[in-house]
Amino acid sequence: MRTTQLRLLLLLCALCAWTASGQQKLAQTGMKFLTVGTEARAVGLGEALTSVEGDASAMFFNPATMSRLASPVSVTLSDAKYIADINHYGGAIAFAPSGGDYGVFGLALHYVDYGTFDGTIVDPSASLGYQETGPFKPSGISLGVSYARALNDKFSIGGTAKYVRQSLGIAVTAIDPGSGVRTQSGNSADVMAFDFGILYRTGFKSLNFGMVVRNFSREVEYEKEPFQLPLTFKLGISMNVLDLSHVEKSDHALLVSFDAEHPRDFAEMVRMGVEYRFQDMISLRVGYVSPQDETKWSYGIGLHKNNVMGTLGFGVDYAYTPFGLFGSVHRLSVQFAM
């Protein structure tokens, strides 16, 4: 009976993705860098990570999924070469003191460098109709503190409190024609935001359910117009489907994951990811998101090795995302487990 229910659920998820149409804009949000994934394994799986138990990088997706950390300390560092020469950097560290008896604590950082731009201001007296005001560098940062705990052998909870700040750089808003004195504006905004997640192990093989709410905060404004952060609600289901077969589990694993996502500013979407892992060392991944205009597919590969120099675990992951007219996006992540 449970096997039949699982097959029906997976079929419904696949049909939702197949029948979804183009991406539909519904509202405006700000600080959109919070929705850009930096971690390569996650992106290779279409960011369908809501119900997938993981390492320190879980703080970027569902903090509850790090509640059963496999090692006392987990560290992940990521670099994403995004479109338009925008660079995203991510880092996270998670601790499980006393074998996780007191839960798992974590710190996560997401920083985005938008590059350097040349500033100008309208000046009718100038030959070109404007004056140059010098370069400026927009940036964004999110610094979070997380906690996760397994309440029993099936149910886990987790949460993150994060300080989010985005700066559009120093802007010159006026120039006194007589003295040449410039009036400047900082154009920055900050806010506290929160993520809340749960994870439920069903007890049927490796079938997991997850739920997360991300980027819950008050309204923010720069000058006059307030805006909301990209609040997102996700439901997820995942399983190593080889648990339903007689394949040797120590050598092969085939993770299949689905997320149903409800963002504040777009219509609902479905995320899907598949990861084949051989001997817990080599991983091949593919992800799909629908509806999505430019970034439907993503691909990834991972190499992992446990017991390096005794107790150290080490891993490298790479993800490639075709981005339509914008070219492609490359992400690289490294993980350490101690």
Description:
It is a single chain. The protein is mainly β. The chain has one domain: monomeric porin ompg (Porin). Helices cover 7% and strands 52% of the residues. It is built from two helices and 20 strands. The chain has helices at 2-19, 40-44, and strands at residues 73-81, 87-95, 104-113, 117-122, 130-136, 139-150, 155-167, 171-175, 182-185, 188-201, 208-216, 220-221, 226-227, 232-240, 252-263, 269-278, 282-290, 297-308, 312-322, 328-337. The strands form four sheets. It has a 14-stranded antiparallel beta barrel. A two-stranded antiparallel sheet has the order 4-5. A two-stranded antiparallel ribbon has the order 8-9. The longest helix has 18 residues, at 2-19.
Outline of this structure?
With 338 residues, the chain is mostly beta strands. 7% of the residues lie in helices and 52% in strands. A hairpin with a 4-residue loop joins strand 12 and strand 13.
